[in-house]
């Protein structure tokens, strides 16, 4: 019997995780599985026709999300109608907690008798601890990426599984520097700088002008500078439009393989906060985190967050291994100075942190097995 899986990924990092899960489910069911729901380009490549473009959900920040609320609520109603029409065997949301919890709350009211699963536990150890108490009311199983997260949810009776971090199975450390240099006809002595301004339009519009000025300053010291900007479908048109008048040699690339080849060839990276920092760490790329949000969002985050760092490597080691330049520190001069330091002394001790994110079984395979078993149990109980 064919397994019908409904997946909802609200941003590119979730889309990537979802595509790997889809591949694992195909393997474990010997192809007896169908997918519907919401996803991006990599989930589309695995056979998912998304209900709508996930760019509508890829909004970051407490203040920035306000203008998008009507569209987001409209998509929420679309999903509910689609689920009732498709009648899947299981529903799984991926990341994007604020949107995902609204999906599960509405599903709970509908009482469809379908297991609900969420992947990427909300970071209750950082802020909003009350989410742990709330979440168990609306989902049947939670996947955690970090080894210390299960303990926050189990006291409330929520079944959880530590799967390890999906970045470990992505191949970020398998890129080819040779392939990159050959493709762009570059001298091996070229200084390659990677810019990763985020996967949301508001991130790109805020960070790219700063990153551009940093690169202009770097090009004065390194005349052979080459800038690479890996992007995703949600923001690629915006990125391309912003760089088309750049005088610095550069390229905008799409896709995992091209990104990982660029990692292998790069000397340093400047990145917005997020999963990409783990990919860079796995690939051994010296990098820093530079991030800025709307001042109101920044002020509220400072009041609410209970952590010293935003970068996961730093959180796991409880010290600043990866430089963080946030808000008022996210300036051209400070980023330039820190980038220069990394070019001169590129060592960053990240192995200890990466080891904590690994498990014996790949995250996607672990998730697929849980979903299949949940579906079987649910059918047997009916």
General description of the model:
Helix content is 45%, strand content 15%. It contains 16 helices and 12 strands. The protein has helices spanning 12-28, 41-45, 69-86, 97-110, 130-135, 150-153, 177-183, 201-221, 236-243, 256-265, 276-283, 295-304, 312-317, 332-344, 351-356, 363-381; strands at 3-9, 33-38, 90-94, 116-119, 141-144, 160-162, 191-196, 225-231, 250-254, 268-271, 287-291, 324-326. Helix 8 runs parallel beside helix 9 (236-243). It starts with a strand and ends with a helix. The model has no long low-confidence stretch (mean pLDDT 90).
SSE diagram, text form:
Elements: E1 3-9, H1 12-28, E2 33-38, H2 41-45, H3 69-86, E3 90-94, H4 97-110, E4 116-119, H5 130-135, E5 141-144, H6 150-153, E6 160-162, H7 177-183, E7 191-196, H8 201-221, E8 225-231, H9 236-243, E9 250-254, H10 256-265, E10 268-271, H11 276-283, E11 287-291, H12 295-304, H13 312-317, E12 324-326, H14 332-344, H15 351-356, H16 363-381
Parallel strand pairs: 1-2, 1-3, 3-4, 4-5, 5-6, 7-8, 7-10, 8-9, 10-11, 11-12
């Amino acid at each position: 019997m064919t397994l019908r899986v409904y997946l909802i990924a609200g941003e590119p990092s979730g889309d990537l995780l979802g595509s790997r899960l889809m591949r694992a489910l195909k393997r474990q069911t010997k192809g007896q599985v169908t997918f519907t729901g919401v996803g991006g380009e990599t989930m589309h490549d695995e056979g998912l026709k998304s209900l709508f473009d996930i760019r509508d959900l890829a909004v970051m920040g407490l203040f920035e999300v306000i203008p998008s609320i009507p569209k987001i609520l409209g998509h929420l109603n679309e999903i509910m109608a689609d689920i009732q029409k498709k009648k899947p065997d299981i529903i799984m949301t991926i990341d994007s907690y604020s949107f995902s919890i609204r999906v599960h709350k509405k599903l709970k009211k509908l009482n469809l008798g379908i297991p609900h699963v969420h992947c990427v536990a909300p970071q209750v150890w950082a802020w909003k601890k009350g989410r742990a108490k709330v979440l168990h009311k609306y989902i049947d199983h939670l996947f955690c990426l970090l080894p210390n997260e299960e303990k926050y949810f189990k006291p409330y009776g929520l079944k959880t599984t530590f799967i390890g971090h999906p970045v470990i199975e992505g191949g970020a450390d398998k890129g080819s520097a040779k392939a990159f240099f050959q493709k762009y006809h570059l001298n091996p002595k070229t200084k390659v700088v990677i810019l990763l301004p985020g996967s949301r339009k508001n991130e790109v519009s805020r960070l790219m002008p700063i990153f551009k000025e940093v690169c202009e300053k770097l090009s004065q010291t390194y005349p052979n500078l080459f800038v690479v900007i890996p992007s995703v479908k949600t923001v690629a048109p915006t990125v391309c439009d912003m760089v088309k008048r750049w005088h610095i040699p550069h390229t905008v690339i799409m896709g995992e393989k091209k990104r990982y080849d660029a990692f292998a060839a790069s000397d340093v990276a400047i990145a917005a906060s997020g999963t990409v920092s783990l990919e860079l760490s796995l690939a051994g790329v010296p990098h820093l985190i530079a991030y800025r949000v709307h001042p109101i969002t920044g002020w509220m985050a400072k009041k609410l967050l209970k952590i010293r760092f935003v970068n996961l490597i730093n959180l796991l080691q409880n010290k600043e291994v990866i430089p963080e330049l946030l808000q008022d520190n996210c300036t051209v001069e400070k980023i330039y100075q820190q980038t220069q330091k990394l070019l001169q002394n590129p060592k960053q001790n990240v192995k200890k942190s990466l080891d904590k994110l690994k498990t014996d079984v790949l995250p996607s395979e672990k998730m697929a097995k849980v979903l299949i078993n949940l579906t079987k149990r649910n059918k047997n109980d009916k």
